[in-house]
């Protein structure tokens, strides 16, 4: 008598969601470069003037609110008053095309610098008509950047500068109480688990910095595609991967670094440049293969990064379909701009590949603040008009980590695709059925500290935000 084990086939159905690309940063064929930033600054000042007026009067009481032009009309120049305007920071180390040209022509050398802020920087506040220099120690140049709209309290000195006694910012938008806020509060505690709720319906998977140009073929990419497509893991793992309704590659997928060449003597490294171009093509083909596997099972959004093959200046335009010939055949692939804003399900999602925050960090030189903290500062400066969840995505090529976002609760968590090393690691194996619970079988290999126990997929207990100080791509 023979017995046959019958295994029930469980089919995981991936949920469909609404997707809309607002195409806000898509440039027309007739590109125009004659517009200046002044209109943008004036529009933001006009939009935030009433908010700052209310905040200033609430904080300081009944002071006169004047324009910069009206300061000269005061009888007593030392009478304190309030000015509302846009901050401009004058920086000596800020890159200039004229300085670069002078450096190249060996007229005057410009010292190379990774950061452009110094103690000698000067702050100005300007409105629609004119500007005035700020003095005093209440507004530190390293804590603020050009374009921030604020209100300052103080008086004008005899030398024409405005002495700042205090200042205030627009602040974060008032939080709107909603049904989600009451019934499903956003969790940011480390006790929350990626797999705590099997029935959580819709999730996003965010990745950045695959850097296939500098990353050899590795098991991490196979684990990534197999988990998303439902091949890897047990039933619970497949059920949770089935809840991923959108995968977002947030830039620098093909390349994570850029090689620069001087114009002088450029013919020398030309062969090296040609070889780099060939390697970039190979990296693009590898990325196309990865995306091609995923788009057959899930919707994918590909955003270009600073080093990907598209235009360098912001806004970067979508990667050309010819670079992704295999995956571009599927309607489930969306190639977008950088920055990008659109609608996924009932949520507005906006993101960039990180250049904006990195530029803010360059002109601030506050090394003790993380990219996520600078991203939070943009909310205090009110560069956004919505209640949002801030997410900083780690570089996948270095951490093998991706970020999962629950679209219902906005809860975030990280998931790692990599090898489980021997030692005291604080990891939970997702594939419980394949885990070797017999510790005695591994006793012979304990002397090798570098031995890979097995390749597996694990969830990092340290949840919430993934931060990489070298290359943060932000959603």
TrEMBL record:
**What biological processes does GO assign it?**
DNA strand elongation involved in DNA replication
Species whose genome carries this gene? Aphidius gifuensis
The record's region (Disordered) falls at 428-475
Keyword Cell division set for record: no
Q: What residue spans carry the Acidic residues bias annotation?
A: 428-448
Name of this chain's protein:
DNA polymerase delta small subunit
- Keyword Cytoplasm among UniProt keywords: no
Q: Which family does the record assign?
A: Belongs to the DNA polymerase delta/II small subunit family.
Annotated ranges, domain DNA polymerase alpha/delta/epsilon subunit B: 205-382
Q: Which Pfam families match?
A: DNA_pol_D_N, DNA_pol_E_B
Q: Which Gene Ontology CC terms are recorded?
A: delta DNA polymerase complex
Q: Which UniProt keywords apply?
A: DNA replication
Gene3D superfamilies this protein is in?
2.40.50.430, 3.60.21.50
- InterPro entries for the chain: DNA_pol_a/d/e_bsu, DNA_pol_D_N, DNA_pol_delta/II_ssu
In which domain of life is the source organism classified? Answer: Eukaryota
Domain DNA polymerase delta subunit OB-fold: start-end pairs: 36-167
Q: In the record, what terms sit under GO molecular function?
A: DNA binding
